[in-house]
């Protein structure tokens, strides 16, 4: 796969084959890609909580917000939920601010997941205090992002932003998820 193919395939997937397991060793390999990625001042303040068992997954899922533009869709139904999660944490014992390290880490992880035939979604809409309690994450760690992972069960199609300039993603009658992207001409000054 070329880099362009990998980036194109690396879409935000929100429906999964929940019963297709993701092994802990796979999650560790993905975190290793994040470990090797760029970090401001090379402080490397990020830590990771990994989940791939049904009980822990069930504790994480209710704390996540899905696809805000799909108003009539409350998120993936039972059977289509992520098979694994990587929670990205900021270690305040190392630094007080973490951005953009967690974005870079998330992209490395998701590109690795895509290469491995998996898919995922970055989730920033997180009930952080509830998730902290559910997972017993100690105070020094700030919850930054949750990455939902699994074997995708949906088609996602990139398309050009239309003349109305609407950037909201949408889902058609066949269940295909459409993601409008701005043109190169628009984004390069
Ligand atoms: C920082 C960040 C936070 C995001 N948070 C959420 C979220 O809380 N819930 C969700 O369903 N998707 C979330 N997404 C996914 C975006 O909606 C998605 O990237 C966007 O619609 C474009 O689709 P694409 O990733 O396939 O290009 C987030 C993405 C990023 C980069």
Descriptive key words:
binds flavin mononucleotide; alpha+beta; 4-stranded antiparallel beta sheet; 189 residues
Output the radius of gyration: 17 Å
Hetero compounds: flavin mononucleotide
Distance between the termini: 30 Å
Task: Report the principal-axis shape.
Answer: globular
Largest sheet: 4 strands, antiparallel
Lateral arrangement of strands in the main beta sheet = 1-2-4-3
Proportion of strand residues? 15-25%
Percent in helix: 25-40%
Overall mean pLDDT stands at 98
Report on the architecture of this protein.
There is one protein chain. The chain is an alpha+beta fold and 189 residues long. It contains 6 helices and 7 strands. It has helices spanning 3-9, 24-35, 54-60, 101-115, 128-135, 184-187; strands at 46-51, 84-91, 119-123, 141-150, 156-160, 170-171, 177-181. It has a 4-stranded antiparallel beta sheet with strand order 1-2-4-3, with helices on both faces. Strand 6 (170-171) and strand 7 form a beta hairpin. The structure holds flavin mononucleotide. Flavin mononucleotide (FMN) binds at residues 11-12, 14, 65-67, 121-125, 156, 169, 179.
């Amino acid at each position: 796969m070329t880099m362009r193919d990998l980036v194109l395939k690396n879409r935000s997937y929100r429906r999964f084959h929940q019963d297709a397991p993701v092994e802990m060793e796979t999650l560790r390999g993905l975190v290793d890609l994040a470990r090797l990625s760029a970090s401001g001042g090379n402080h490397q303040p990020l830590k990771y909580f990994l989940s791939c068992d049904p009980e822990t997954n069930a504790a994480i899922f209710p704390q996540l917000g899905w696809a805000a533009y799909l108003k009539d869709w409350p998120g993936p139904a039972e059977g289509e939920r992520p098979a694994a999660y990587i929670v990205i944490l900021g270690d305040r014992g190392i630094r007080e601010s973490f951005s953009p390290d967690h974005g870079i880490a998330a992209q490395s992880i998701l590109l690795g997941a895509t290469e491995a035939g998996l898919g995922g979604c970055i989730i920033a809409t997180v009930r952080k205090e509830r998730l902290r309690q559910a997972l017993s994450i100690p105070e020094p760690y700030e919850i930054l992002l949750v990455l939902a992972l699994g074997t995708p069960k949906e088609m996602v199609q990139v398309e050009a932003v239309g003349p109305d300039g609407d950037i909201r993603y949408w889902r058609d009658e066949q269940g295909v998820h459409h993601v409008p992207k701005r043109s190169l001409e628009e984004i390069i000054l």
